[in-house]
Automatic annotation (TrEMBL):
UniProt-recorded Gene Ontology molecular function terms: alanyl aminopeptidase activity; metalloaminopeptidase activity; peptide binding; zinc ion binding
Organism per entry: Anopheles aquasalis (Malaria mosquito)
Every Peptidase M1 membrane alanine aminopeptidase domain range: 274-488
Name listed for the protein in its UniProt record: Aminopeptidase
Span of domain ERAP1-like C-terminal: 571-889
Spans traversing the lipid bilayer: 913-933
Subcellular compartments: Cell membrane
Keyword terms of this UniProt record: Aminopeptidase, Cell membrane, Disulfide bond, Glycoprotein, GPI-anchor, Hydrolase, Lipoprotein, Membrane, Metal-binding, Metalloprotease, Protease, Signal, Transmembrane, Transmembrane helix, Zinc
InterPro entries named among the record's database cross-references: Aminopeptidase_N-like_N, Aminopeptidase_N-like_N_sf, ERAP1-like_C_dom, M1_APN-typ, Peptidase_M1, Peptidase_M1_aminopeptidases, Peptidase_M1_dom, Peptidase_M4/M1_CTD_sf
Residue stretches making up the Aminopeptidase N-like N-terminal domain: 53-244
Enzyme Commission number(s) from the entry: 3.4.11.-
Cofactor(s) needed for function: Zn(2+)
Topological category with respect to the lipid bilayer: Lipid-anchor; GPI-anchor
Length: 936
């Protein structure tokens, strides 16, 4: 019987949210959801605990073309779910379904196969919950089968069981793949689609001969159905959550060795060697680290990793069948950068780590997503480090993860790691930097607290004790407390409280006083009295930085007695930035730190603490805690810095500052940039990486060249243009991959339309997804209205895949010269943009990202007039969103106006050749003391 009208189920807003740009569980900062107000009571979005599944039999028959009455891009499905209840009086069964038409359903007793009488079903398209009712209560502890026959849809939105394609000789080759996290398994089969409902799964795919099929477990049989199709049956899975089920129907080939295989389209087989090699090493190294080899799970005799052309997530941890964007798994050394290689290794490590932290042990519900993603993000760095030991990944972790999450966690609207979740939009929303980065940061803190050996032992016990279970934070803390009795007391508050503290250090006669207060970057004055248990380490000399095992201190004010404090060359808190907090110092201490930074060897200050000081100074100035003049003056030390981590922190801070520098002061800022990058440019030079070069030195070069060329460094620009012109004249002689980003960008910036069309043709004909990303970055550097419009037109076409459209747009607007052209384009082509991206909320997103970079009132006013004229077309949600973007523009403008004099005075003094060591000026030290006291 027909359960609901198909059109109702296909309603775009059935999930309670509108996707503005595609999600990336690996890259949560790329996630943008506009959350609708829940239209049901929050508790109604969750299933009850009356009935539990134990096993699913699923059969899928996909159609990639019309076949008789079967429509292309639909699939026939059959599902049989074994369930039982332990309770008495249960006469309703609730489970999920979405975007499908159920044509038949029944309930039968497992014991004798007898049908169970049933009442009419009910379906709520808002909560996506199907309610089945029986006249008489179910018998406790007796097993029943829920049987469904249904028709599903392979949509193009990269969720559920969806369709994708790749080109072969210019023709589309269609394929089907899955992405079920967080709540999309229900689009492929009726299911108890919450992570706590673990069950075993038996999958059958009925497919035509030109397709190969893959799932979580190995194939156990492949038999003809007598009607031109093959019935491929996969082995039963271990008990696992619905979101981890996966299957692929594609004419893919397999490159395999031992227990691992890489799945890819035939033309990409030459790009799989590195991922296969590093994947095997990681699978074994991580299994050894957690003391639970992957093949300890009897059903998991092999692992497949698949490269998917269209994939909303960066990658996905389906047990035994990991899926990836092509950019995150396909690699060839002559066409991929060193950073892209690291990215591939790190993504593989992230997903393989999930085989234990997420698959074997699964967060009980998405409110504690960090129990999955925090571990995976931690091993993304420290798992990769097990097999690629020369990449200095801990240094990268501190800047990219710890400092990165501090940005969003310093806002009032941040959230705790453990946070209530009910609706689909809320479930999607917690896949953010708080769950990923902050979760990983807390694990690194635990490792330093317990010591690496004890931390590893604790992880092993946690995995062994909770295998095949759905877990809560208490399960983790219970194990940790066996090794350190106060772990839960000290660490749990960091998981249930949002934000982090600013610790202010002042000198005393016998040592130092530490005062903690929540850091809110936009609210210097606030009444939030949240306190944290502070992990304290400190250094007064170079040797001290090696001590990273913190002691915890409670209270708003902490007193540290330190012998010889007054005579110490400096006092720096939080060795190697293991703790998660910012630090401000009184004027005298900042003066000592500045003197050390400006001395030979930076006074022995550890490279990670130099990165910490850089990041803190930029953000303390932004938060009005330290004057911009003081911060920029101390940061003049960067003129002598040649290490990657401090420069990466500096680039992050300078990117934010560059957007807020007054447009009339940009020439002064340009002089400042070229000055501080002068020495490091001379160190890295415009050259290909040398054999045996430190990996982070290669990364440093990429950042330095990008900034130098962007700000008009003549030698950089000339070298890049020369490289591009050589490539343009002879495309068979390629640019070194680690120079391509800056060469492509500068070649397009200084080139002609002919150069642009040449590079665009390279994009269209490239077989390498990593190369296509580099080309899009380069094309985004075009500045003329004509070329910007061509680029924006391209983004609205099929030539740029949906997963790459958002990035391609970002590459365009990161070029400040394009902003007026982009604004005009969006106003003139808003309907085309909305159609290409799915909704007018995508138009709003495009305008808001532009407004965040805009400094021109005239352009802002044009956008304001546009939305008033087109309010009805935009719709309320998009209109309100852009109105907020316009308000944010005014907030940014006020920030620029407020800080302009101080920033300009520093830049002008520097441009005029003024002395730079502000903190050596006694009168300014006195002024800083007054400033510091006024902030207490």
């Amino acid at each position: 019987m027909r359960l609901v009208d198909r059109l109702v189920l296909l309603a775009i807003v059935a999930c309670g949210c509108i996707v503005v740009s595609q999600s990336s569980p690996l890259d949560p900062d790329r996630y943008l959801l506009v959350e609708a107000e829940p239209r049901a009571a929050l508790e109604d979005y969750r299933l009850n605990e009356d009935v539990w599944p134990s096993h699913y039999d699923i059969e899928i028959t996909p159609y990639f073309a019309d076949e008789g009455t079967k429509k292309a891009f639909t699939f026939d499905g059959k599902a049989s779910i074994r369930v039982k209840t332990t309770l008495t009086g249960i006469s309703t069964i609730k489970l999920h379904m979405a975007r499908m038409e159920i044509t038949q359903w029944s309930i039968t007793r497992v014991q004798n196969g007898a049908d169970v009488p049933r009442n009419p079903e009910a379906y709520d398209p808002e909560t996506e919950i199907l309610t089945l009712t029986v006249p008489s209560p179910l018998t406790p502890n007796e097993e029943y089968l829920l049987n469904f026959v249904y028709i599903g849809n392979m949509d193009e939105d990269m969720h559920g069981f969806y369709r994708s394609y790749y080109l072969e000789n210019g023709q589309k080759v269609w394929m089907g793949s899955t992405q079920f996290q967080q709540t999309h398994a229900r689009r492929a089969f009726p299911s108890f689609d919450e992570p706590r409902y673990k069950a075993t799964w038996s999958i059958k795919i009925i497919h035509t001969a030109q397709y190969n099929v893959f799932s979580n477990t190995p194939i156990i049989s492949a038999l003809s159905n007598g009607a031109g199709r093959t019935i491929t049956t996969f082995a039963k899975t271990p008990a696992m959550s619905s979101y981890l089920v996966a299957f692929i129907v594609a004419p893919y080939q397999v490159t395999s060795r031992d227990e691992m295989g890489i799945l890819a389209r035939p033309q990409a087989q030459n790009q799989t060697a590195y991922s296969l090699d590093v994947g095997l090493k990681l699978l074994r190294a991580l299994g050894d680290m957690v003391g639970y080899p992957y093949t300890s799970v009897p059903e998991m005799t092999r692992m497949y990793m698949a490269a998917i052309p269209d994939f909303s997530a960066g990658a996905m941890e389906n047990w035994g069948l990991l899926t990836y964007r092509e950019t995150n798994i396909l690699y060839r050394p002559d066409d991929s950068t060193s950073m892209q290689q690291q990215r591939i290794a790190a993504v593989i490590s992230h997903e393989i780590a999930h085989q234990w932290f997420g698959d074997l042990l699964t967060c009980e519900w998405w409110d504690v997503t960090w129990l999955n993603e925090g571990f995976a993000r931690y091993f993304q760095y420290f798992g990769t480090q097990l097999v690629e030991q020369n990449w200095e990944l801990e240094h990268q972790f501190v800047v990219e993860q710890l400092q990165g999450v501090m940005q969003m966690d310093s806002l009032r609207n941040t959230r705790p790691m453990t946070h209530p979740v009910y609706t689909q939009a809320q479930a999607s929303g917690v896949f953010d930097n708080i769950s990923y980065n902050k979760g990983a940061v807390m694990l690194r803190l635990l490792e330093h607290l317990l010591t690496p050996e004890r931390f590893r032992t604790a992880l092993r016990e946690y995995v062994r004790d909770n295998a095949y279970r759905a877990v809560r934070p208490d399960d983790f803390f219970t194990v940790l407390n066996r090794f350190e009795a106060t772990v839960k007391m000290h660490l749990e508050p960091w998981t249930v409280q949002g934000g982090y503290p600013l610790v202010t250090v002042t000198s005393t006669d016998k040592g130092f006083t530490l005062t903690q207060r929540r850091f809110l970057v936009n609210e210097l004055t606030h009444n939030d009295n949240t306190l944290w248990s502070l992990p304290i380490t400190y250094a007064t000399k170079a040797a001290d930085f090696a001590n990273t095992q913190p002691s915890f201190h409670e209270g708003a004010t902490i007193t540290l007695e330190v012998a010889g404090a007054a005579d110490a060359p400096y006092f720096i808190l939080n060795n190697q930035q293991v703790g998660y907090y910012r630090v401000n110092y009184d004027a005298g201490l900042w003066a000592k730190i500045s003197k050390a930074l400006h001395s030979e060897g930076f006074g022995g200050i550890h490279v990670l603490n130099r990165a910490q000081l850089v990041d803190d100074l930029f953000n303390l100035a932004r938060g009005d805690v330290v004057p911009y003049g003081t911060a920029l003056d101390i940061l003049e030390y960067l003129k002598e810095e040649t290490e990657y981590a401090p420069w990466l922190a500096a680039v992050n801070g300078l990117t934010t500052l560059a957007r807020r520098v007054h447009e009339e002061d940009e020439q002064l800022f340009k002089h400042h940039i070229l000055d501080i990058f002068g020495k490091v440019y001379g160190v890295v030079k415009f050259q290909a990486p040398a054999t045996g070069e430190r990996r982070v030195h290669t990364y440093l070069r990429q950042n330095v060249l990008q900034w130098a060329c962007n700000y008009g460094h003549e030698e950089c620009s000339e070298a890049a243009v020369k490289e591009f012109e050589s490539f343009f004249q002879n495309p068979t002689v390629k640019v070194n991959p680690d120079l391509r980003q800056v060469v492509y960008c500068e070649g397009i910036r200084k080139g002609t339309r002919q150069h642009f069309e040449f590079l665009w043709n390279q994009y269209l004909t490239s077989n390498m997804a990593t190369e296509q990303i580099l080309i899009l970055q380069g094309l985004g550097c075009a500045s003329s209205k004509e070329l910007v419009n061509i680029m924006l037109d391209a983004i609205t076409t099929e030539n740029i895949r949906p997963q790459d459209k958002s990035n391609a747009y970002t590459y365009v607007i990161n070029n400040a010269y394009t902003l007026p052209h982009v604004s005009a384009y969006l106003q003139q082509n808003h309907a085309i943009w909305a159609a290409a991206h799915g909704s007018y909320l995508n138009v709003a997103s495009a305008f808001n990202n532009l407004l965040a970079r805009l400094k021109n009132d005239a352009e802002k006013n044009k956008i304001s007039s546009f939305i008033e004229t087109n309010k009805a077309v935009l719709g309320t949600a998009a209109y309100d969103s852009i109105k907020q973007g316009l308000d944010d523009y005014e907030t940014n403008k006020q920030f620029t106006t407020k800080n302009r004099d101080e920033i300009r005075d520093f830049l002008k003094k520097k441009a005029d050749g003024g002395a730079a060591t502000v903190l050596t000026n006694v009168s300014l030290i006195v002024g800083l003391v007054v400033f510091a006291l006024s902030r207490q």
